[in-house]
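Supplementary Text 2. Reproducibility record for the structural model of the 233-residue chain.

All settings were left at their defaults, and a single model was retained for analysis rather than an ensemble. We include the record here because the model underlies the residue-level annotations in Supplementary Table 4.
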Amino acid sequence: MMNLKNSSTGLLLAGAILFMMALGCGGTQSGPKPEWIKLKRIAGKEQGLSHVSGVVVDDKFAYTTIGGTVADANAGTNGLRKVPLDGGAVTMLDNGEKYPQAEQGGIAQDEKYVYWNSGGEIARIAKDNGKREAVATEFVGIGIDMVLDTERVYWANHGYYSSGTPITPSPIYSVAKAGGKAEIFADKQMAPGNIVVDDKFVYWTTPSSIMKQPKTGGTPQVVLQAEERQRGH
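Retained model, structure tokens:
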């Protein structure tokens, strides 16, 4: 028998066998095709989309914030767009005169409206091409995490943190979905983000914990606290 370990011919033969096996496995594999094969491109640059930063989807449309930069403003590609999931014309819901949030997040939806961070304010517009409305005009950062329930909008402003730089506590805010005065929902939280809600509570993360607070008010509660060694101390 040929010694494949010591023979150069054997090494070439072994490589050829492995290559043919790989081809054979790929060519004769049975069963369902992977899900990524089913992906469908519904819109792109040819429809004026550029620098997609946030997206929400209902049963018929995707709503996306795009741009958020001076270059996109000059090119006319800033704003909020409505994209049919089955393909077709892209609709401009907002022209981006007030720059949308240029990073992931800052967009949410309910049955009737899309809400987004636009030029340092939270705005909303009806999905059927209604008129833009201001929801919150104060305490809105350049970048936010935002979530909705049936009555209110909750958000936290993104901070930009680096190693060795002290974190300054900041609030989680809320405002009525129809607009009004923004209120502090939970004060002095350490780099809050990743906000979610259920029927009774608002939840968020800090660098070392998961927190929650009843929507009716009260004191923030720790759901999960990281151990000291997990925090690198």
